[in-house]
Amino acid sequence: MADRKSGAGDTVVIKKYANRRLYNTATSAYVTLEDLARMVREGVEFVVYDAKTNDDLTRQILTQIIFEEESRGEALLPVQFLRQLIGFYGGQMQGVLPSYLEMSLDAFARQQEQMRGQFSKAFGAAPGAGLLDEAVKRNMAMFAEAMKMWPGFSAGAARPGAAPPPEQPADPLAEMRRQMDEMRAQLDKLSRPPGKAG
């Protein structure tokens, strides 16, 4: 099934009907959640609207895709991360957390692209699976560490005998900037080719 790539502002409109069927208006065909997951991976921008009420259902459908992927054994989100994420709903930081997560994942994706580019230059082709897997593991570990630096992500996850969490800073935005700077420095370190001093 040919899908329209997003470009020059093109966004595919998906209509969701009462019978739970999803209709791709660009291809005039019904699609599944798996088709939508493939579209996301291919960089196709889409929005999902309720066919009757015209309510925007994009967030719910994307969440449903994540649920499907996780239940299929494609586990990407650690249980502790999910618990902590749920804990943020209704809290004081709920307003800034989406931006923080988006910035973190954007930085992660940019770093992955840089790494792929460096491998391509060095080897003239895509890297071996082992090298890339190792890099992804390092990046995921770095991302997990960055999430721990965020005030509240380590709250509730304290182990018996662990030191009490540090006092919250007076200015949470200044603290967030400081943490983002630290994370950028870690990303820069990881993106340097092996053997180059920083």
Report on the architecture of this protein:
The protein is an alpha+beta fold and 198 residues long. Helices cover 51% and strands 8% of the residues. The protein is built from 6 helices and 4 strands. The protein has helices at residues 33-41, 58-71, 79-88, 97-123, 129-149, 172-191, and strands spanning 12-16, 22-24, 29-31, 46-50. Strands 3-2-1-4 form a 4-stranded mixed beta sheet. A hairpin with a 5-residue loop joins strand 1 and strand 2. It is globular.
N-C termini distance: 47 Å
Name the average pLDDT.
75
Report the C-alpha radius of gyration, rounded: 20 Å
Overall shape: globular
Query: What is the number of helices?
Result: 6
The portion of residues assigned to helices is: 40-55%
Largest sheet: spatial strand order: 3-2-1-4
Features:
single chain; 198 residues; alpha+beta; 6 helices; 51% helix; globular; disordered N terminus
Helices and strands in order:
Blueprint: E1 12-16, E2 22-24, E3 29-31, H1 33-41, E4 46-50, H2 58-71, H3 79-88, H4 97-123, H5 129-149, H6 172-191
Parallel strand pairs: 1-4
Antiparallel strand pairs: 1-2, 2-3
